[in-house]
Design brief:
The complex is a heterodimer of chains A (about 250) and B (about 220).
Chain A (H helix, E strand, L loop, with lengths): L4 E9 L2 E6 L2 E5 L3 H10 L4 E6 L7 H14 L4 E4 L5 H10 L3 E4 L1 H5 L2 H10 L4 E10 L2 E6 L4 E6 H10 L4 E6 L11 H10 L4 E4 L5 H9 L4 E4 L1 H4 L5 H10 L7
Parallel strand pairs in A: 1-4, 1-12, 4-5, 5-6, 6-7, 7-10, 10-11, 11-12
Antiparallel strand pairs in A: 1-2, 2-3, 7-8, 8-9
Helix pairs in contact in A: 1-2, 8-10
Chain B lengths: L8 H6 L7 E5 L6 H10 L3 E5 L10 E4 L5 H10 L3 H9 L4 E4 L1 H4 L4 E2 L14 E4 L7 E9 L7 E7 L1 E2 L7 E7 L1 E9 L2 E4 L7 H16 L3
Parallel strand pairs in B: 1-2, 1-3, 3-4, 4-12, 5-6
Antiparallel strand pairs in B: 6-9, 7-8, 7-10, 10-11, 11-12
Classes of the chains: A alpha/beta (about 250), B alpha/beta (about 220).
Chain lengths: ~250, ~220
């Protein structure tokens, strides 16, 4: 049976891991290769590496980091940040990514999803959706949360699926870095409406918050700061989830 | 679960095998080619990117890696005039490994590549999977159906799969239906999962493949 995945996320800036709260106030959190290797040894199921600066200037540094992290692990690596074109996606794959996350550029031109899927297969295309709660609904934000759009997040998720996405990485900006638990209603709404695998992100707090995300319908759940600080161990998360009857790779 | 990134280069040095097996890794624009090359290097091989028939000359084995749309992959193989040299080398006994889309392209036909004839190294057609969640993404059990193969946890990422059964199937996995997660026919090994991303289980499979190729060099 397919297991639930525990994912460690490395937000990188200039070759270093950083982590903020609600996408702001970034603080350094270590060396990406050393972190990836350690999480891999602890049994994490996948690594997500995001170049949060996502600028043309940072591109080469981000690709170097992807290459170094990729060579250090023997589990899947999703990489993203600043992917604007098919060739950008190809560069990440050539550096050592197994899946590519696309966000702002896909929102601006959704045809990018289908064009990537036509070459790399749907399973390679992770559409990353950052959402904010606005009055009565979850809306899409892009460009690292700095641009808000009056578009219902789930509606965008449905379009991404229809255009050939292979996975949705769903981040609640409201919960990001706050350790207040994942946004369970948001996860449930996506899990119920979409056929795609769903990665929940934003708000990881402790082992039970991961189990809550899985029980709400997430196929994978992602943590960053709780793993970086060592407040929560990957083995501990998996053990707790297994005790809740969830299928985990041990 | 500790994962040790076993480096088989020491094995070759200890056993006085000077030349590490040269493995041609098909690299035609799509695929996680870099990841596969890293894993093959750890398994003791010397991977070389294969973009034309020239790079097949002198290779001790060939790998068709995954992370591609199968239609794009077979079209790329044809556009680079690789189909005949590949089939010729494999028919002469060159060990071959197809992974994920690279496994699917080894069948006679695939739903992801309509109106195309694929390599036909395995009989049958790869079909769109039928499951509530697709793609089949993540870690699942590979259950060996023959003594010569092993069972374990492996990483999958695909929406198409070959039906199980037939003499070639050596392992199966369930997602929705049961499908062939590994097949072998003579010198051709096909894996629906990603051995290069499947921890110790995948590394052991690659090591065995490389050691087999090493006997030829």
């Amino acid at each position: 049976m397919l297991t639930k995945r525990v994912i460690a996320c490395l937000d990188v800036d200039g070759g270093r891991v950083v982590k903020g709260v609600r996408f702001e106030g970034m603080r350094e959190a270590g060396d990406p290769v050393e972190r990836a290797r350690r999480y891999c040894e602890q049994g994490v199921d996948e690594i997500v590496l995001l170049d949060i600066t996502a600028t043309r200037q940072s591109r080469d540094a981000a690709l170097d980091t992807v290459a170094e992290v990729s060579a250090a692990i023997d589990i899947p690596l999703t990489a993203g940040g600043g992917v604007r074109t098919l060739d950008d996606a190809r560069l990440y794959l050539a550096a050592g990514a197994d899946k590519v996350a696309i966000n702002s550029a896909a929102f601006a031109d959704p045809s990018l999803i289908g064009r990537c899927a036509a070459q790399f297969g749907s399973q390679c295309v992770v559409v990353s959706i950052d959402v904010l709660w606005v009055r009565t609904r979850h809306e899409v934000a892009t460009h690292g949360g700095s641009l808000q759009h009056a578009r219902d997040a789930l509606e965008w998720g449905r379009e991404a699926q229809a255009r050939g996405a292979g996975e949705v990485l769903l981040t609640s900006i409201d919960r990001d870095g706050t350790r207040s638990g994942f946004d369970l209603p948001l996860i449930a709404s996506f899990a119920n409406a979409l056929r795609l695998p769903l990665v929940a992100s934003g708000g990881a707090h402790d082992a039970s918050s991961f189990a809550d995300a899985f029980l709400a319908g997430a196929d994978a759940a992602l943590g960053a700061s709780i793993f970086h600080t060592g407040d929560c161990s990957i083995a501990g998360v998996k053990q707790h989830c297994a005790l809740q009857g969830l299928e985990m790779r041990r | 679960m500790p994962i040790h990134l076993y480096d088989a280069r020491a094995f070759y040095e200890r056993n006085g095998m000077t030349g590490r097996p040269r493995i041609a890794v098909v690299a035609l624009g799509a695929s996680n080619h870099a990841t596969m090359c890293n894993a093959l290097t750890r398994a003791g091989a010397q991977p070389v990117a294969c973009r034309s028939a020239d790079e097949l000359d002198g290779a001790d084995a060939v790998v068709i890696p995954g992370v591609a749309n199968v239609a794009f992959l077979i079209d790329s193989i044809d556009a680079n005039a690789l189909r005949a040299p590949l089939l010729d080398a494999i028919s002469r006994g060159l060990p071959a490994l197809g992974v994920c889309a690279g496994f699917q392209v080894c069948f006679e036909a695939c739903d992801e590549a309509p109106n195309r004839t694929t390599l036909g190294l395995f009989s049958g057609r790869v079909r769109a999977m039928d499951a509530p969640k697709l793609p089949h993404m993540g870690w699942n059990r590979v259950e060996s159906t023959v003594p010569a193969f092993t069972s374990g946890w492996a990483y999958f990422a695909h929406s198409f799969a070959a039906p199980p059964g037939g003499a070639a199937t050596i392992a199966v996995t369930r997602h929705g239906a049961v499908f062939a997660s590994a097949s072998r026919r003579d010198n051709v090994l096909g894996l629906q999962f990603h051995p290069e991303r499947s921890g110790a289980f995948g590394a052991a499979i690659l090591r065995a493949f490389v050691e087999d190729a090493g006997r030829r060099c």
